[in-house]
Amino acid sequence: MVLSHHESIGLFRSSAPYINAHRGKTFVIMFGGEAIEDDNFANIIQDIALLNSLGVRLVLVHGARPQIDQRVALRQIEGRFSHGVRITDKQTLECVKDAAGSVRCHVEALLTMGLPNSPMHGAQIRVCTGNLVVAKPMGVLDGIDFENTGVVRRIDTTGINDHLNDGSIVLLSPMGYSSTGEVFNLSHEDVATQAAIALKADKLIVFSNYSGIFRKDGKLVRTIERTQLEQLHKDQEIMTEDTVIRALVTSVKAGTPRAHCVSYETDGALLQELFTRDGAGSLVMENHYEQIREATIDDVGGILNLIKPLEESGVLVKRSRERLENEIHQFIVIVRDGMIIACAALYLYPEDGSAELACVATHSEYRGKNRGERILAEVRERAIAAGIHRLFVLTTVTAHWFLDHGFKPATVDALPASKKELYNFQRNSKVFTLEL
User: Fold this and answer.
1) Residues of the chain falling short of pLDDT 70
2) Does the model's pTM come out above 0.70?
3) Are residues 325 and 424 in the same domain?
4) For residue 241, what are the domain limits?
5) E strands within 256-383?
6) Do the Cβ atoms of 169 and 107 come closer than 8 Å?
7) What CATH number has the domain bearing residue 407?
8) DSSP readout, 4-40?
9) For position 135, what pLDDT does the model report?
10) By the 8 A CB rule, do 72 and 33 touch?
11) Are 138 and 185 a contacting pair, CB within 8 Å?
């Protein structure tokens, strides 16, 4: 797709807030050996180099399972697994060293040469690695000795932060070292999650062969709380790889604010996820204290208290308790410690595939923390699930907020016929639409 001059400028401007927000933050990026063999991997390296140039502190963690499998087969060694984990004997360990070293060199070379004929041509990027992961043996489980298969014991955060502070990208392999000089084969999932936790990273980004977290019914989950994802995974309702889900859940549970899942097969998925409003994959968050859900009849009083100041100031149209009770199932709320701090309503007009977003409100003490964005994202998901392809909103005061979030100015003629008949010309609300 070729963008026009004006579209390119608009895209750059809309990404500016994200560029500013991500600068100086620490991201751990995890990708398996399958991603490295994919034709799109060179584009991923370009995007990683771009993130580095924008001031993002990057720790890359690579896997090497298919590369190890290739070397094990070439040497005619019997590959042994238990509980999905490779048993690493001395012969297999040599294959692990060979594969991990080869992958590491490949990634370093791609980042070092700046990729001729790419946007990052000529960029000088330092890649640092080393004995930054301390490991211990997995030991004997269910009577099986895993030999040189290990688990992360400690991440050298001081060493990693020294490299990051110098502007370097840190590259971690699925290998660890003990104080006695032993080498262990590690899961890259374990290395990535423990690195994100130890470094107190702002994000863990995991590449998958899926374009995010997919349910068994084929539906992409754009945003989900960690507890919900954990339950869906336990109920075997998730299609995305187990290693990816475990990494997302483990890191967020331990305090990583946000964990993302994107496709390694889609060109630009990483940048789209980080620098656009809609993203390209899935986002997992903890949200211990806040829950977003459909409203119930018990929420009527809380919603009335929330919207009353906005109704009195003329920002919202007044709603009676009776009307709110009748329409309560059209409302979505964010609840914090039992208190409703944000709400919105979604009214469907299925005859022309549109829906109205109405009564968007956030408590004055809880504004500025992206709660409006969370409500909008939930409304979008529900509208799309209902077969709606366009949202519209009527507003007199908050036009700028809707414009900032992708809505476009429209006329009254853009409204469904039944809504147009009820339009209050005296109130003279502005109309905005958003294509889904």
Assistant:
1) 1-8, 113-123, 287-289, 337
2) yes
3) yes
4) 3-283
5) 258-263, 282-285, 290-294, 331-336, 339-349, 354-362
6) no
7) 3.40.630.30
8) PHHHHHHHHHHHHHHHHHHTT-EEEEEE-HHHHHSTT
9) 95
10) no
11) no
Calpha distance 150→132 (Å, rounded)? 15
Write out pLDDT tens, residues 88-116.
999 999 999 999 999 999 999 888 765 45
Q: Tell me, yes or no, whether 275 and 296 share the same domain.
A: no
Q: Are 203 and 258 in contact (CB under 8 A)?
A: yes
Q: Looking at the structure, tell me whether residues 272 and 343 fall in a common domain.
A: no
> Residues 356-394: pLDDT tens digits?
999 999 998 888 777 888 899 899 999 999 999 999 999
Co-location of 205 and 346 in the same domain: no
Cβ 35 vs Cβ 264: under 8 Å = yes
User: For residue 186, which of 257, 243, 143 has the smallest C-alpha distance?
Assistant: 243
Angle formed at CA 281 by CA 379 and CA 191, multiple of 5 degrees: 130
Beta strand ranges found along 350-420 (DSSP E):
354-362, 390-395, 408-410
One-letter identity of residue 238: I
Q: CA-CA distance, 409 to 169, in Å (whole number)? A: 43
* Structural contact between residues 30 and 188, judged by C-beta atoms closer than 8 angstroms: yes
- Same domain (yes/no): 237, 253: yes
Considering the domain architecture, whether residues 230 and 370 belong to the same structural domain is answered as: no
Say whether both 381 and 306 belong to one domain. Answer: yes
- Total tally of structural domains belonging to the chain: 2
pLDDT at 114: 53
- The last residue of a domain, from among 249, 283, 317: 283
Task: Quote the CA–CA distance of 115 and 120 in Å, as a whole number.
Answer: 6
Tokens 């990583």: give the residue: 256
Q: What does R_g of the chain's alpha carbons equal in angstroms?
A: 25
Where among 242, 267, 283 does a domain terminate?
283
